[in-house]
Backbone:
């Protein structure tokens, strides 16, 4: 990365050469300087995924199942469930798509708006393709034949407490209208184990607001530092929705229920699997 | 075609004038400044566009097309003066065009019209409202001039009006907002932020303006060049040194320690990107930039460093 902070040398052991090789094989239109039209920077991806890959392979031992359900090329929406008090689910899904898919793909998450205002966090998220969660961004990325990662539960989903970890809360319906408008397949992605890694016992909403975040999760050891537990991602078969994005709410909600039900089936089928 | 260019002595306007002249158009210009080295065949009237004498030029020349480039963009000029020049000048140009039978008028605006903020979309389409004033009040006159020019689309239906919102230009002339900002050895950044900057080679920008004229396009269009780049990378590649400064100190260091003098509103443009989608213009005119990021930066760097 070109900026002054990123010019600090990454320790040799933190630069994963497998990650570097895979990032170099991502099919994005990087220019001479390694920047794509959305501001994704190749060098920063290598740094970001080198750290994530260590968590993915060595710390959590994440297993990705059914990755063949993710389209190798072209647009698609990975629709996941939140599990764990922080965005561990999104990070591990991103990592699985880079490390397990052939050819490797970069999924674009829709970052919370408050991240765009935070120094360093906004810079990091922009350079790694995690754009601010605006409908215009989602639509443009899909029209550009990219892979979008969405969590329709929103911040309500990450606020789930330990005993709710394998449940699903209310889904927004914007993602279905977007899939209909862009004719994008939806790939359900069940993330299992996040609630065990970061068992939230309470959420501090007022303190969170002081930092510009929706809440601060509290674990039995106070801070949301993840435990070393096995994590699993199960990709379901693509769901292709037919219809107009301007359908009545009742029609769209039926589509939402279909996706939610597919995700729930995946979670229920594997939540008690022991590794 | 008889083409009149108010603001002809500006660096970009000169390139436009030369290109059109070479293509066989008859070029006239209006400007308060001189252009002593203007090639034979380009007639320049040294007049203020807001004065009555400017209307005499319209009456005398009877231009078929007008390219309005007489807006002040540099922020060293006092706000009140900028308002007068940019708003009354733009009004005069459109009134004269309508009154003296010009068929076409192109207003060359700026992409900063859209404004820089944390929650705005990365690529701005032409239909988006102007948000520049919310964070950068010093740009209010340029936004107002842009909107006024756009209103000519319904006020003067017989005049083919085109508002061309052009991104920053870079090139050997080293003129323009971004080019001036990057010229110093040390260039300020807001610590923790590294927005994307969009730029176009000045020759490509001039070519875009010429195409807008020759294709006689009507409406509002964005004009841009290659993919945007992070500011830190742009500073490095143009041979400068980025000075990341905590935001609370930034307003204090503007104009000191070899850093450029910027108004307080410019901070938003150092934190968040202003990037435009120019696909509408490309599809309408078949425009393609001839200089990529590397060639554009090299053309600028060769002269500056």
Residues:
């Amino acid at each position: 990365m070109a900026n002054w902070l990123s010019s600090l040398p990454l320790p040799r052991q933190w630069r994963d050469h497998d990650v570097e090789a895979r990032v170099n094989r991502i099919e994005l239109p990087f220019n001479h300087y390694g920047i794509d039209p959305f501001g994704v920077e190749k060098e920063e991806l290598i740094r970001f995924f080198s750290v994530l890959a260590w968590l993915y392979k060595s710390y959590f031992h994440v297993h990705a199942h059914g990755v063949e359900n993710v389209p190798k090329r072209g647009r698609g929406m990975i629709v996941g469930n939140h599990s764990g008090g922080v965005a561990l689910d999104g990070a591990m899904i991103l990592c699985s798509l880079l490390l397990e898919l052939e050819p490797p793909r970069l999924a674009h998450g829709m970052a919370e708006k408050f991240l765009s205002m935070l120094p360093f966090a906004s810079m990091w998220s922009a350079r790694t393709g995690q754009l601010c969660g605006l409908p215009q961004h989602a639509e443009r990325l899909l029209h550009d034949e990219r892979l979008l990662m969405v969590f329709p539960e929103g911040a309500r989903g990450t606020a789930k407490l330990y005993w709710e970890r394998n449940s699903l809360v209310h889904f927004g319906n914007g993602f279905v209208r977007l899939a209909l408008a862009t004719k994008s397949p939806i790939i359900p992605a069940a993330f299992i184990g996040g609630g065990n890694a970061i068992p939230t016992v309470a959420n501090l909403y007022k303190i969170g607001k002081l930092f510009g975040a929706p809440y601060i999760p509290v674990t039995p050891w106070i801070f949301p530092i993840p435990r070393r537990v096995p994590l699993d991602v199960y990709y379901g078969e693509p769901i292709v929705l037919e219809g107009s994005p301007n359908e009545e709410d009742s029609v769209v909600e039926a589509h939402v229920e279909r996706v939610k039900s597919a995700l729930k089936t995946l979670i229920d089928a594997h939540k008690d699997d022991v590794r | 075609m008889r083409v009149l260019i108010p603001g002809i002595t500006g660096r970009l306007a000169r390139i436009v004038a030369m290109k059109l002249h070479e293509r066989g158009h008859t070029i006239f210009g209006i400007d308060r400044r001189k252009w002593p080295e203007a090639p034979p065949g380009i007639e320049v009237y040294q007049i203020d566009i807001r004065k009555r004498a400017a209307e005499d030029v319209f009456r005398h020349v009877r231009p078929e097309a007008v390219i309005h480039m007489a807006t002040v963009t540099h922020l060293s000029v006092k706000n009140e003066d900028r308002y007068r020049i940019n708003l009354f000048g733009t009004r005069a140009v459109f009134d004269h065009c309508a009154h003296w039978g010009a068929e076409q008028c192109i207003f060359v605006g700026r992409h900063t019209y859209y404004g820089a903020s944390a929650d705005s979309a990365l690529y701005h389409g032409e239909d988006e409202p102007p948000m520049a004033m919310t964070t950068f009040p010093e740009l209010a006159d340029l936004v107002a001039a842009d909107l006024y020019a756009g209103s000519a689309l319904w006020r003067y239906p017989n005049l083919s009006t085109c508002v061309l919102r052009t991104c920053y230009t870079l090139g050997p002339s080293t003129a323009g907002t971004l080019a001036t900002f990057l010229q110093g050895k040390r260039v300020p950044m807001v610590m923790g932020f590294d927005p994307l900057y969009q730029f176009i080679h000045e020759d490509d920008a001039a070519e875009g303006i010429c195409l807008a004229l020759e294709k006689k396009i009507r409406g509002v269009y964005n004009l841009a060049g290659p993919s945007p780049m992070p500011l830190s990378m742009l500073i490095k590649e143009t041979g400068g040194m980025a000075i990341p400064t905590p935001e609370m100190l930034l307003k204090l260091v503007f104009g000191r320690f070899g850093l450029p003098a910027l108004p307080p509103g410019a901070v938003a443009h150092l934190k968040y990107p202003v990037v435009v989608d120019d696909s509408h213009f490309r599809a309408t005119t078949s425009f393609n930039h001839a200089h990529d990021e590397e060639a554009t930066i090299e053309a600028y760097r060769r002269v500056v460093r």
Notes: DSSP finds twelve helices and 15 strands in chain B.
